[in-house]
Design brief:
Length: about 325
Amino acid sequence: MEYILHPNAISTEGFLLNSNNDFKLRLALPLLQLLLQLLQLLQLQLQHKVITTILLQCTLVLSATLLNSELNAGPFPPAAGVSGSTAIASTDPSIVGWASAYTNYNIGNNVDAEFQTPNMALGEAGNSDGSNNGFVFDIVSLGEAGSITLTFDQPIANGSGADLLVFENSFSGTFLELAWVEVSSNGIDFIRFINYSITPSSIGAFGNIDTTNIFGYGGKYRGGFGAPFDLEELKDNPLLDVSRITHVRIVDIVGDGSALDNFPAPNGPNPIYDPFPSAGSAGFDLDAIAVIHFAEPTFEENVPFPAVAFIVLACALVTIRQFISKNKLNP
């Protein structure tokens, strides 16, 4: 970008706006004015247009950072705390339960032993064992391409809106490690939620993701806020009973672009990017899975019929035996 400067530019009035960047520059001008006033208070004089240009460029970077969600917003819901977000807090009263057990913890690459702690994915977010470790440390790391399956005291049901929430431990709304979320009603056939990613390129090990560019992933929101999943999306799959989901599987996505989303052709599928490479606690860091809609208990779940039947049968046999013995003693 090239700026045309007034020879004696010392205030914002000296700048001519490039038509292609008029909007961004107008947003930056108030910040530039404040910086100029500060410099004037310090009795500094800007006599060279190069210095002024550098100052303007720095201000534009700051403005773009502050206004990024508005200038570069994608089509999907924004970060937790922003109007239009679908994030649900771990303390939300709509939550009726949490994962209670795990199975098939398949550790991926680059996970230190201290983070191989699947029990920390059970119970409420940030407090799996009652010690209130918090969202950052109360986790199990899956590692690159790792996975874990969680189960619940009751099956999850398809209700109105979101039915389950997946919590990760990100400390910010932009440093996001992503995972696929899959569900099963028999523990064998797992169906993945639809997911889209339009992050344009690799972001490196410590890069940021705009939440409005991703949809359908665990890890979309920062720690303490669950990403919602609605079973209604999967109701037509013949391998799934959305009224009785018994297993939820979380699968880490290797963020180098080798994994693809569900965006349809001809414009998709798209590569999925998240921070890569990583080490220590690599991959998705699962904090918890919350339930919003449990299935109504069946008769068998309310009354352990086989046990009751066994007791009744045993009592009947004892009674019959006593009756036969009594008749033998008293012919």
